[in-house]
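Quick one: structure for this chain?
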Amino acid sequence: MRLEMRRTSSSCIIALIAVCCAAQADKDGASTATPRFDDVGAFSEGLAVVRVKKKFGYIDTSGRLVIPLRFADAAPFSEGLALVYTTLGMNLLGKTEGVWLFASAGYIDRTGKFAIEPRLIENAHKFSEGLAAFEPGASSWGTAKWGYLDKTGKWAIKPQFAKAGDFSEGLAPVAIIVDPKTKREKWGYINQTGKLQIPTQFDGVQGFRQGIAKVFFAEKNPKFEHMHRPHGQLWGCIDKAGQVVNCPDRRSP
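Got it. Here's what it folds into:
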């Protein structure tokens, strides 16, 4: 459930340079104190996540702290909004192998104001193509469903999926449970109305890029041709109609 501060080497170098440059004389000749951060993330839409101890905020490209260190966790900005946790809830049965309950999160704009007020949550994603995959929860760990929020915080697609991914090129990967005992999942793709565009029949999927997505199978499927077997895993490529096509890159994903 916890977010990870993702970095790219170039973005982090820029962020660290920006922090150092923030320690400069102001217009009156007075010096400003350099913020000391325990961690600095990559810039996204002109802002980067920073952490001091257990609090998160955001700096701009000059290294100035523009959104205060007041969040329990924070993610990079995407489409003008960023997912932030106001509380991480409580962990049961151990710090590493337990389950988190009663976490609360929402989405802020670039001023730090909540565009979508915090609510109880199990998991969530960034906004992509105007929608964000969101799994609400309280004490229902393991039984909540994923849906999609719009930028007003309303359900554009009501919670109904076991798992859900980001939209790309108008489609998003979603999974349903096909075997409750083993929790086995099957993946397919929905459109932005929530309609299943490509049936849930795959054991794993990736997002669409230039009209093509890679899909995976646990075992050979007679319905699909051109299956490859890197490291024992079957995979191939489909178009937006769900038809098998030649992969632009046949290397293992």
